[in-house]
Specification:
The protein is of the alpha/beta class. It has a single domain (2-74, 146-244), classed as 3-Layer(aba) Sandwich (Rossmann fold), CATH 3.40.50.300. Helices cover 36% and strands 24% of the residues. The chain has helices at 40-47, 90-100, 106-114, 130-142, 160-175, 187-190, 211-215, 221-237, 240-244, and strands at residues 2-11, 14-24, 29-33, 55-60, 75-78, 148-152, 179-184, 196-201, 204-210. The strands form 2 sheets. It has a 6-stranded mixed β-sheet, with helices on both faces. A 3-stranded antiparallel β-sheet has the order 2-1-4, covered by helices on one side. Helix 5 links the parallel strand 6 and strand 7 (179-184).
């Protein structure tokens, strides 16, 4: 279980995460959706102990990430833009990550196979396609077979085949009982994949619930998202509070 409660993050005079609360539960894909700059990555960085909250809590199974010993056994994460040494092979990179958390070396072969990277195991990371690089990030997150997965923009830049593979793979992870939290700024890519949805804009939650509840009468998540964000933008620009933020 991931539990975000009244989370606030300020950078100087700017509030980038504003009283955000939601849960991500086992056996479900939770889509954390919003435009670029909405506060999604800031929230995930706090959740993963890479940044400190101004107020509120971000917990995994009731404890902060920083307190988890050998965290890859409990939590697998892939952050957008988090790179690896491009001179290493895919296998060498995964072996290094596994050793950092005392994960058996045999698990490297398991995740290479699981993510369709077995044939590229000896390829240097600098020579991998964008799609293969995303798969490598997923493979690293899965090394400890953790019950919780946190993925920031995993479909970013993928071609249609890559997006289809990622959708099916995320679904299979949730179906196996894992808690899967996925951030994205592209609503259509989460259509049919997310069980639960949290929509964020300007650091604030605009809607949260099952995908069907958030979709409502709009037909698609994308249409619901634009209706929510358009209303939010109009509200912000209509009064002194909006002009000041």
């Amino acid at each position: 279980m991931i539990q975000i409660s009244h989370l606030v993050k300020r950078r100087g005079a700017r509030t980038v995460v504003d009283d955000v609360s939601f849960e991500a539960r086992p056996g479900r894909v939770t889509g954390f959706l919003g435009p670029n700059g909405a506060g999604k990555s800031s929230t995930l960085r706090i959740l993963l102990g890479l940044d400190r909250a101004t107020a509120g809590t971000a917990l995994i199974d009731g404890v902060p990430y920083r307190s988890i010993r050998r965290p890859l056994w409990r939590v697998g994460a892939m952050l957008d833009g988090a790179g690896a040494n491009t001179g290493r092979t895919a296998r060498a990179h995964l072996t290094w990550v596994a050793q950092s958390n005392a994960i058996p070396a045999r698990r490297v072969d398991d995740v290479l196979e699981l993510t369709g990277l077995a044939a590229a195991a000896r390829t240097r990371i600098g020579g991998l396609s964008l799609g293969m690089g995303q798969r490598l990030g997923i493979a690293a997150a899965l090394l400890g077979d953790p019950p919780v997965l946190i993925l920031d923009e995993p479909t970013n830049g993928l071609d249609p085949d890559g997006i289809r593979w990622m959708r099916r793979f995320l679904r299979s992870l949730a179906d196996s009982g894992k808690t899967v939290l996925v951030s994205s700024h592209l609503m259509g890519e989460m259509e049919g994949t997310a069980d639960d949805v949290v929509v964020l804009a300007g650091g604030r939650i605009l809607a949260a619930g099952t995908a069907a509840e958030v979709r409502g009468a709009h037909g698609t998540l994308e249409d619901a998202f634009f209706a929510l964000t358009d209303k939010h933008a109009a509200h912000r620009s209509s009064g002194p509070e909006g002009l000041a933020r």
